[in-house]
Each structure stands twice: as C-alpha cells, then as structure tokens.
Amino acid sequence: MGEGVLALGKIALIFAIGFPLLLYLAQDSLIFHPQRLEESRRAALAQASAAESLFIHAADGTRLHAWHVKGDPLVIYFGGNAEEVSWMLEDAPRRAPGVGWLLVDYRGYGSSDGSPSEKALVADALQWHDHFKAAGRVYVFGRSLGSGVAVQLAAERPVAGVVLVAPFDSLVEVGKRHYPFLPVGWLLRHRFDSAALAPKMKAPLLCIVAAYDEVVPAEHAKRLYDAWGGAKRWVGLDGAGHNSTDSALNYWPSIARFLSERPS
Question: pLDDT tens-digit profile of 223-242?
C-alpha cells in the first residue's frame, strides 16, 4: 500500500508541475488563433471593394496589412482572437455610412506576416495610428481580444472615442474563470490588463456587452466599465452571445450614433 501511495504521489506531482508547464508553453496557441487570407482572395477583395489593401512595415521589418476605407471619422478596428477582418469590408461601411475604417490584420492573421504577441500587437497598433495621425478624428474599436489592444492604444495616443465589444478587465481574470485550478497569474505572458489603464482614460467609451456571453461573461466588462475614467455608455445586447453581437437590433445603431457625436 505504501508503494502505491508513493506512486500516486509521484503521478500527482508530475501532473501538478507538467500540466501548468504544458499550458505555459502552449499559451500562444490557446490565446491566438490566426486566420490567414489567401493572396488570390486578398487581390479579389481589393479589386471588388472600395477599400485599399494597405501594407506597411513594422519597426522590426515585419510586413503588416490592413484594409482602409476612406471616410470621416476614421475607426481603427481590432478583431477577436480568431477573426479574419475582411468580412467587415461589406458590413461596416453599410452600417455606418460615411465613416472611414482601418481594419487591421494582426501579425500572422489575414495578409500580415509574423507571429502574434501582446507586445507586438500593441506596437503595431501604435504604428498604424501614427500612420494615420493626420486623418482628423480617430476612434479605436476593439472586439474581445481586440479590446485589450484598443485600450492600450488609447492609453498612448489621443483618440476621439473608444468602442469596445465583449471586452474584459484583464486576460488574467478571464483565465482564472476558465482555469480556476491553475496559477494563471504566474503563467500568463500576454496579460492585456485593460482595467489597470482604465482609471486614467479620458476618451469617451461605448461598451457593448452580450447578455449571454459564454466566453467573456459580462461581469468582466462591468469591472472595466466601472474603472473607466472618462465619459462612458453601456449597451447591453439582450439574447446575444459572444459570437452573435452583430445580429442584435441595437448593435450597429449604437455604434453609428456614438461615431456621429462630436466630442464636447
């Protein structure tokens, strides 16, 4: 019996050390799910739409891509962790006429090169903003994972407003909810701690939250919203889940109204 207990103890120890280590090493693939866009598809979209297929180079030489739809104001859009943003080419201009859009491909996503990380995505976001700093009014729009990128951009650069859809307080807190048995606070490299930046934010916030978000429950958005230092507006989407926000009746009208308002 003693040997059996000892063996079980060794197994438990291996699991206790090995499983967190495995998750630590695999966290990039758990957080980021790059969706590529074939070159032939990109060329076809560029020819068929009014958007410019725009490439720039990051400071480290990585080639980055975004779709640019001219208009005023300009909204810089950061998508979710498994989102290929070209689907917005038809929807966004139709739902918010006259508004300009910069639909950003993260590193490794769409037509951008490289591999994603929190540090790289935020640095790239700042570069995209600076590329269009003469555009006039600039808003940032972040969906889910993109909310973490948008908040860090808005903390570093002047913006007319911030639109966040299904946002979270920090990726650490979301991770703790889904993995309560793991020391997430120690393991996570990509923390996207938006709540820590929120009290100093002065830009107006439109926070859009699905009532039945199964991925990022609304309480995480509420913590970020409560901490926000600037003017803020909460829009709840009744009946919507994490991946069905756009079908809610008040989703696009709320965004279009927010973008049409002139800062006081």
Answer: 999 999 999 999 999 999 99
pLDDT of residue 31: 87
- pLDDT for 180-202, tens place per residue? 777 777 778 888 999 999 999 99
What tokens appear for 152 in the block? 């860090």
Residue 142 phi, psi (nearest 5):
-125, 130
CATH pick for 32-260 out of 3.30.70.260, 3.40.50.1820, 1.10.150.650, 3.40.640.10: 3.40.50.1820
Indicate the helix (H) or strand (E) that contains 205: strand 205-210
The yes-or-no verdict on residue 41 having pLDDT over 90 is yes
Buried b (16+ CB within 10 A) or exposed e, 40-69: eebeebbeeeebebbeeebeeebebbbbbb
CB atoms within 10 A of CB 23: 16
Angle at 263 between CA 261 and CA 264, to 5 degrees: 115
Q: Is residue 14 helix, strand or coil?
A: helix
Distance between CA atoms of residues 201 and 49, nearest Å = 35
